[in-house]
Write a structure and sequence with these properties.
- By secondary structure, the chain is mainly alpha-helical.
- It has helices spanning 20-26, 28-50, 53-56, 76-95, 130-142, 147-160, and strands spanning 60-65, 68-73, 102-107.
- It has a three-stranded mixed sheet with strand order 1-2-3.
- It is elongated.
């Protein structure tokens, strides 16, 4: 009887590798993905060392298909500067062993800028209904003057306004 066997290797203990990198390394298709990711990270580090720091932190490797490298930046100003530096970058990368002839630049406006925070989710606040407003008015009448009474008054002014 023929049994289906997986083309994935198992670790010496009989279990599949527990880490994602281990899993990718043992699968033929995953190994190609892992090799591409490593090449992108290596050239990203090399470019970061070549470029001025302000440009290096926003420049991202988009595609590497020797002899062409495509870089992505968040604005046209970054792209213009990068295009000026392209011959110098190609020369420096070639001395490091990368076989490149051309660098293309793509502007991706949605790229996060370095040091920027993730965008806030939209507010999901619902306005207070008449019952809630009536309850806060009753509460305000029973409060002594102070920070709490001021806060309730501010809340009522905001929701009635």
């Amino acid at each position: 009887m023929n049994r289906y066997t997986s083309n994935r290797s198992r670790s010496p203990g009989g279990r599949r590798s527990e880490t994602p990198l281990g899993w990718l390394g043992h699968d033929a298709r995953g190994a190609g993905v892992l090799a591409t990711a490593r090449r992108h990270l290596q050239i990203q580090q090399a470019i970061g060392a070549i470029l001025p720091p302000t440009l290096g932190v926003v420049c991202v490797v988009a595609k590497l298909e020797p002899p062409r490298l495509q870089l992505a930046v968040p604005s046209a100003a970054h792209a213009a500067k990068l295009r000026q530096l392209a011959p110098r970058i190609v020369q420096a990368l070639n001395t490091q062993g990368w076989n490149l002839n051309e660098i293309t630049v793509r502007v991706q406006a949605g790229m996060p800028r370095p040091g920027s925070k993730a965008p806030r989710p939209p507010k999901e606040a619902q306005p207070l209904g008449p019952t809630a407003l009536g309850a806060f008015e009753t509460l305000q009448e029973s409060l002594r003057p102070g920070p709490l009474a001021d806060a309730v008054a501010k809340l009522l002014a905001h929701h009635k306004g």
